[in-house]
Design a protein that fits this description.
The complex is a heterodimer of chains A (405) and B (516). Chain A is 64% helix and 3% strand. By secondary structure, chain A is mostly helical. About 1% of the residues of chain B have low confidence. Classes of the chains: A mainly alpha (405), B alpha/beta (516).
Chain lengths: 405, 516
């Protein structure tokens, strides 16, 4: 006889989930309509039904390490068809927030990121930090005069507006590298713990590398996301944002590599690079893709708002951050072409603040799904658990024949 | 009319009543039979005990009088279980939800578990269920409780199988509340042994209708020959014809209402009381005019007994579904007209044919049989007489007509007040007259009977089982007689039923008594 599992509900966890956008959680009466309509739910231990009752019962330990909350792509089919209005889609969303909070360290920051009251503080930190850096570098390093020393060269200032006239590039890069390092280490710790939890729950049948390759392919094509057929706008939007970020990441890396490393071998022109430069072109295309994607995502969120789903503060926090990054970036570039120096510097400052926030708060914000979802998908794939959409459909008559024989 | 003696507080009072409403309510199922659910442990209680604690102002653990931090409700404790009460008691789900709220309202950190088989919250109660479900500290799951065990002084451990959480789980609780079901007050008591010594002599007792169940619940203490309480149907609830005519019981003028009739909540019981009271008023009114009550409402005839020829066989006093006959020491029937429903079952039961009504007698029906024209054998037209119950089967025949269904033209119908009126003499009359076949159509009997007089069609079936003697005397085939139970909505079967019977008769051939 199997040993019964000891259950100890965590009342605070239930309250947290309810406060994080899962306020409909308790309405569920376990009819399983959600798992039936879900285009992604696997046939074995399907979600989100089991997550609903686990969350009702406040089983935090099971839920935060549950890979299935990450297999959900939040198409909200479940919430549309739920006969009780329990909105499993929103509950899963809230559970993902709790999982991010659980694995992020220090948890105090995670709590702040998830709490609307801390928003001014979260904005003030980078705003002051970057303002101080601008002030200090200008005082200490720039001094006066018509020239600047950039990468050991003395540059005569001209009419061109340049970002590094406000803040030296190395200062930006040092700050952002450190911030990125911090984010990566927080992620690394979280993911290692998550992976350990996943491994102790289920044995893998496949190595990490082959599973990861398949998952990367899946993510590149957004094929699971596409299975959530009800919400084509969100699929396209997410695709735009995803590739926008990829393009911008490549651009930034190229410029970084060019300025600091390639420069040692050949002469690399000073930034800003001209618009026709392929790297620059890629960056601008990425920016446009990002903006277009954001537009689609926000529009679909606003359209859906109401009966089926409610966007939480957590959703809007990330969207607000990304929107600020994208618009301040694109606008500052446009303003630079227009030659409005003051406005350019202001927008660039906002851009820096937003990008720093994105870097620093990623392990605690919804953006952390990049890492946890990928991890969960890889582990799931390695365990050989297929999502429902990939299971070959067996027709009823075939089933009957096999039963007869 | 009843002479009612009421004993209360040591004194007794006798009043005259025209009708009685039996609303004796229910008792909770005896939890001491639920040892497997932990009853007997100090901290395992029932709904009733929690309600008493709530009334006293504090819900506390019996062992240490502290307010429990966690409470587990076990639903259907001894209900919907073949070993205990097989039925649902209708209110326990709501009671548990309410009591869960008691606990949560006092302590916002308390945890309440509800383990159910199914949540049954009919009607508006569904909204209350939804509201309670919203409470963050109330945890519900379907499941089967495998065991409840004491866990030192730390409380109780409850093992739940097949829970919605997908595995066998164990919950810890300071207190367990068993949602025990309702037992009607009418079921509390010893069952009366009605099997008389004569039964042992009868060899063919298998076919005999089951004796009525009378449970000595000490509620009515009737002085009826058939026993002191209402006959019980399933599970000790009094037979109140729940299918068609709620409140009607098998004792004219006595109307069960509330939880003696079926498990129900307070609101429904109040409605039920209204229904039963209206029935009681009708009964008093009609009795004052000498009229029968439902279903032959307004009938003012009575069975006349020609007692000089009575052989004291007691058939009528035993078979009357309404206990209308008492009897003296010798067994002579003593009719009580106000108890009579005018069904005529006694008329069918009497082998001496001494019971008749002024407008419905052995002779009247016999004359109808004799008046049927029986074609000569060479006309090759068979003749069938069909005795048919006027309550459901005869209207079914009307429905067949309305729907233009075609059936054999050789059948002649004689409606009866109840198929239980059938007297063997009519069968003998029909057969000796040369009628080829006799078809009897009555209502369904059994636990979910549709017979308006409860026992009529069952008795008719029993009597026809004993017809062999008559047939043997006339040297006739048993296929000539057929009994069928028909529900009113089965009218579409009538042509086939009659058609098959006609085919069977063709095989058997014509009645040799034709033309005698």
């Amino acid at each position: 006889m199997t040993q019964p599992k000891r259950i100890e509900p965590d009342l605070d966890f239930v309250r947290d989930v309810i406060a994080s956008g899962g306020d409909t959680l308790k309405k569920c009466f376990q009819c399983a309509t959600c798992s039936v309509v879900c285009p992604l739910s696997p046939p074995e231990e399907p979600f989100p039904r089991k997550e609903m009752i686990q969350a009702q019962w406040g089983l935090k330990d099971q839920l935060v390490k549950d890979p299935d909350i990450w297999l959900c792509h939040n198409c909200n089919d479940c919430s549309t068809y739920c006969p009780r209005g329990a909105k499993p889609g929103d509950v899963m969303n809230a559970l993902r927030k709790k999982a991010i909070e659980h694995y992020a360290a220090p948890q105090a920051i995670a709590k702040k990121v998830g709490d609307p009251k801390s928003l001014p503080l979260l904005i003030a930190i980078p705003a002051i930090l970057i303002a101080v850096i601008i002030g200090l570098t200008n005082l200490w390093w720039h001094g006066e005069g018509p020239t600047r020393i950039v990468h050991g060269e003395e540059i005569v200032l001209d009419e061109v507006i340049r970002s590094w006239e406000m803040i030296p590039m190395w200062a930006v890069d040092v700050l952002f590298l450190l911030t990125a390092l911090f984010a990566v280490s927080v992620f690394a710790r979280g993911v290692l713990r998550f992976w350990g939890d996943l491994d102790s729950a289920k044995t893998r049948k496949m190595g990490f590398i082959p599973a990861a390759i398949e998952v990367v392919k899946e993510i590149a094509l957004h094929s699971n996301f596409k299975e959530c057929g009800t919400n084509q706008d969100r699929y396209l939007g997410h695709l735009g944002v995803f590739y926008g970020f990829v393009a911008l990441f490549i651009t930034t890396t190229c410029i970084f590599a060019g300025v600091y490393f390639l420069n040692l071998i050949v002469h690399v022109p000073l930034t800003p690079w001209p618009l026709w430069n392929p790297v620059k072109l890629l960056g601008n295309l990425g920016g446009i893709a990002l903006l277009a994607g954001l537009f689609l995502i926000i529009r679909s969120r606003l359209n859906q708002e109401g009966d089926e789903t409610a966007s939480s503060y957590y959703d809007w926090f990330l969207l607000g951050m990304v929107v600020t990054v994208a618009t301040s970036g694109m606008l500052s570039e446009i303003v630079r072409w227009m030659g409005i120096g003051f406005l350019y510097y202001l927008l660039y400052y906002i851009h820096l603040v937003a990008v720093w926030s994105l870097f620093a708060y990623t392990p605690y914000s919804k953006l952390a799904h990049i890492v946890y979802r990928t991890t969960a998908l890889i582990h799931n794939r390695a365990c050989g658990r297929e999502l429902l959409a990939k299971v070959p459909v067996v027709s009823l008559t075939e089933g009957r024949e096999t039963q007869a024989t | 009319m009843f002479d009612v003696t009421i004993k209360a507080n040591g004194s007794s009072e006798t009043v005259c009543a025209g009708a009685i409403v039996e609303a004796a309510g229910f008792q909770r199922y005896d939890a001491s039979k639920l040892g497997d659910l932990g009853y007997g442990s100090a901290n395992v209680v029932t709904h009733v005990e929690v309600e008493e604690m709530a009334k006293a102002g504090k819900i506390a653990r019996p062992s240490d009088s502290n307010a429990p931090q966690s409470v587990a409700f076990i639903q259907c404790a001894g209900s919907r279980d073949p070993d205990h009460l097989p039925y649902c008691s209708a209110v326990c789900c709501m009671t548990s939800l309410k009591q869960a709220k008691y606990i949560r309202e006092v302590d916002s950190e308390a945890k309440v578990y509800i383990i159910y088989k199914d949540m049954r919250t009919p009607g508006q109660n569904e909204n209350y269920y939804k509201q309670v479900q919203q409470d963050e500290g109330i945890f519900l799951t379907k499941g089967e409780v495998a065991s409840v065990q004491e866990d030192g002084d730390k409380g109780l451990r409850i093992e739940v199988d097949n829970s919605l959480l997908g595995e066998k789980i164990e919950i810890k609780a300071d207190m367990v509340v068993l949602a025990t079901g309702m037992v009607p007050a009418t079921a509390m008591g010893e069952e009366l042994d009605l099997s008389s010594e004569e039964d042992d002599k009868k060899k063919d007792s298998e076919e005999e209708p089951a004796a009525d169940r009378i449970i000595k619940s000490d509620i009515l203490n009737l002085t009826y020959r058939q026993g002191p309480e209402l006959p019980a149907l399933k599970y000790g609830f009094p037979d109140s014809h729940y299918v068609c005519f709620p409140y009607e019981s098998r004792r004219t003028g006595i109307y069960p209402a509330g939880c003696v009739r079926q498990p129900m909540d307070g609101l429904m019981a109040a409605d039920d009381a209204t229904g039963a009271a209206l029935k009681a008023i009708q009964c008093v009114e009609m009795a004052s005019r000498g009229e029968a009550v439902h279903p032959r409402a307004g009938d003012i005839t009575y069975p006349d007994l020609f007692l000089q020829r009575c052989t004291q066989c007691k058939r009528c006093t035993e078979e009357c579904p309404f206990g209308a006959y008492d009897e003296d020491e010798k067994g002579t029937p003593k009719p009580n007209p106000t108890r009579c429903r005018r069904c005529g079952i006694c008329m069918g039961s009497c082998p001496e044919r001494i019971i008749s009504f002024k407008d419905f007698s052995i002779d009247i029906i016999g004359s109808m049989v004799k008046a049927i024209e029986v074609p000569e054998e060479d006309e090759e037209k068979p003749r069938v007489v069909c005795f048919i119950c006027e309550n459901d089967a005869y209207p079914a025949l009307d429905l067949a007509g309305i729907n233009h269904l075609q059936y054999s033209p050789y059948v002649r119908f004689i409606p009866l007040r109840c198929l239980g009126d059938i007297n063997l003499v009519w069968i003998a009359d029909s057969l000796s007259k040369g009628i080829d076949g006799i078809f009897l159509i009555g209502c369904k009997y059994g636990d979910d009977y549709q017979c308006h007089f409860m026992k009529g069609s069952e008795l008719a079936n029993y009597r026809m089982g004993k017809i062999q003697e008559t047939l043997d005397r006339l040297v006739l085939e048993s296929e000539r007689i057929k009994v069928h139970q028909l529900a009113i909505n089965e009218y579409d079967q009538i042509p086939d039923l009659l058609g098959e019977f006609m085919e069977k008769l063709e095989e058997v051939g014509p009645n040799p008594y034709k033309g005698w």
